[in-house]
Specification:
This protein has 571 residues and is of the alpha+beta class. It is built from 20 helices and 12 strands. 43% of the residues lie in helices and 8% in strands.
Length: 571
């Protein structure tokens, strides 16, 4: 019998691997696994997913360069009959023959979708990735160098997760028509490799897309940007009015600040009690019989007061209020004093001892169930409630109790050295939006903007052991440096983080900015539970040292989610 070639042997190994994997999956599902075995099973499965991602691109390249879409019907039938347990004779016969007449499929993409059952868009994406990472194919069918040679070199490394490389190649290919020169494409490739090497896949993709956006925007004239900006009504859809809003980055920061403040339950802006009452007043009546959903609903809550969130005794009852004002209700999750925000503590101190007198229902038929609590509503609806509260504050003669709950605050971080050097981009907002020099200057001319100049020394940043807790000016310095929780991959902004000592206070640690770091409550607790460490090396800011099972290389890492791509590459 004829011996199998190297190619045929590897195909047989892949076929047997599928059978073995199916058997393993069935066994692991039916048997009780030890925790370690279950974790290893999951790890191997994810590692297999990485391998399959690379094989999919390699298979797409193989189909295209071999002309498999021209196989005749008999050859395709033989492939299916061989299945996942082929004999040696079947493997030898699978060489296949191309038809001289009309083939079943017109090209490799058609073969993917028509025979393998892959959606056409996904098939084209795989073939494009193969052209970027393995070899490009000209219109005449000639194979050339890959379109992304730097990414292609990394793609051949079997120990590298190919998925970030595939994603980067897709983003660069999509942006190619807008890139001014081949050199710009090359620089983008090198930057993508640096981001993939230093960041997790989600952060690398985010920063790469930001780089591409900045590059494209830099080439667009201001007139083109102004032509696309605006508020566009999209009509009524499924009972809701839809709008499309396109704004400049420095204007978008106002909305981002509003969203961040509404998400923070530890601030007046995030007062869930009053925001919940505002939501109930705005939307509950829309569900009552006889009320048109398009009619504006006037709130029947206490009248306008800029201190509504912290001083309820000063509220004046409106004409429509059926009951006297009362202190805000304290949610159950804040019944523990150490976790309770300041406004809730003050509300609890002023809360009367006597229970509230229930109001009789005058019309049981018209009574409708209350909406879910504000915290249980979707984040998008909470953000919309806060935005509308701000807009209602500007109504002529209008009095809205929610108007003062949320006050957007724009904070701009300036790189002092880059600003002096006249760099084209030296500013980012607190929520990570990059600003051009013109946009930064525009913001500086507006009232209510808080510039934070990095490397400035207008505040003392070291108070030694005179105080254990970080004072406000040091927290502002930490927020300007860290932008949010420094644990890699965490999306918690600085406003919801806690200042932690790198060197524990009880062991002699000092309250200093260079020995402090921002951590969200969850990662703050995890750090003190010994799940990871904070280190300071080579005069750099504090960084996270993950355990070996998460980072075998044991490299100090910092979260870059809130930084611009330029800042990440310069770090």
């Amino acid at each position: 019998m004829e011996e199998l070639t190297s190619t045929q042997s590897h195909l047989l190994a892949m076929a047997h691997a599928i059978t073995a994997l199916d058997a393993a999956g069935s066994q692991f599902t039916s048997d009780a696994l030890a925790p370690g075995h279950a974790a290893y099973f999951a790890w191997l499965t994810e590692r297999l997913t990485q391998t399959l991602s690379r094989l999919q691109i390699q298979a797409a390249d193989a189909l295209q360069r071999s002309g498999s879409h021209q196989l005749d019907t008999e050859s395709l039938d033989a492939l299916v009959e061989a299945g996942t347990d082929p004999s040696d004779e079947q493997l030898i016969a699978l060489h296949g023959h191309c038809t001289l007449g009309r083939a079943s499929y017109k090209d490799a993409a058609d073969l993917h979708s028509g025979w393998l059952g892959i959606p056409h868009g996904a098939a084209v994406a795989r073939l494009n990735a193969a052209g970027s990472l393995i070899a490009a194919v000209t219109e005449s069918g000639q194979r050339t160098e890959p379109n992304c040679p730097q990414l292609a070199d990394k793609f051949t490394d079997q120990s590298t997760d190919p998925r970030p490389l595939i994603s980067a190649a897709h983003a660069i290919r999509k942006a190619t028509p807008d890139l001014s020169t081949p050199q710009a494409r090359h620089e983008l490739e090198m930057q993508a490799l640096e981001l993939i090497k230093a960041e997790d896949s989600a952060s690398a993709s985010k920063h790469l897309n930001a780089l591409i956006t900045e590059h494209i925007q830099a080439q667009r004239p201001a007139a083109a940007l102004f032509a696309e900006a605006g508020l566009f009504p999209r009509g009524m859809q499924r009972g809701l009015m839809v709008y499309l809003l396109k704004v400049f980055p420095h204007e978008a920061e106002v909305i981002e600040s509003l969203r961040a403040k509404t998400n923070n339950p530890n601030t007046i802006a995030g007062n869930r009690v009053l925001l919940n009452e505002l939501t109930q007043a705005n939307y509950a009546a829309a569900n009552q019989p006889g009320v048109s959903p398009t009619e504006p609903i006037d709130s029947a809550e206490p009248a306008d007061s800029t201190q509504a969130a912290v001083d309820t005794e000063s509220d004046e009852p409106s004409n429509a209020a059926p009951e006297p004002p009362r202190a805000p209700r304290i949610p159950k999750e804040w019944d523990d004093a150490p976790t309770m925000p300041q406004w809730a503590r003050e509300a609890q101190a002023t809360e009367p001892d006597a229970p509230e007198t229930p109001q009789p229902c005058t019309d049981p038929v018209a009574e409708t169930p209350a909406l879910p609590p504000f915290e249980d509503l979707s984040p998008a609806l909470r953000h919309m409630t806060a935005l509308l509260a701000v807009l209602r504050a500007n109504r002529v003669g209008g009095k809205d109790p929610g108007a003062a709950l949320v006050a957007p605050q724009v904070i701009v971080h300036l790189n002092y050295e880059k600003m002096l050097a006249g760099a084209p981009s030296f500013a980012t907002t607190e929520n990570g939006l990059p600003l051009t020099a013109a946009a930064a200057r525009t913001l500086m001319c507006n009232a209510g903007i808080y510039p934070v100049v990095l490397n400035g020394k207008s505040q003392p940043l070291d108070i030694g052991r005179s105080k254990r807790l970080f004072p406000p000016h040091m927290k502002r310095a930490l927020a300007a440096r860290d932008r949010g929780c420094i644990y890699p991959g965490c999306h918690m902004p600085a406003s919801r983080c806690e200042a932690d000592h790198v060197d524990p206070w009880e062991e002699g640690g000092e309250t200093r900015v260079d020995r402090g770091a921002l951590l969200c409550p969850m990662h703050h607790h995890a750090r003190h539970a010994g799940l990871f460490s904070l280190i300071v090396a080579d005069g750099k800011p504090p960084a996270v040292l993950l355990p070996k099972f998460l980072d075998p290389d044991q490299q100090p890492r910092r979260n870059t989610h809130w930084f611009s791509a330029a800042e990440v590459l310069a770090a």
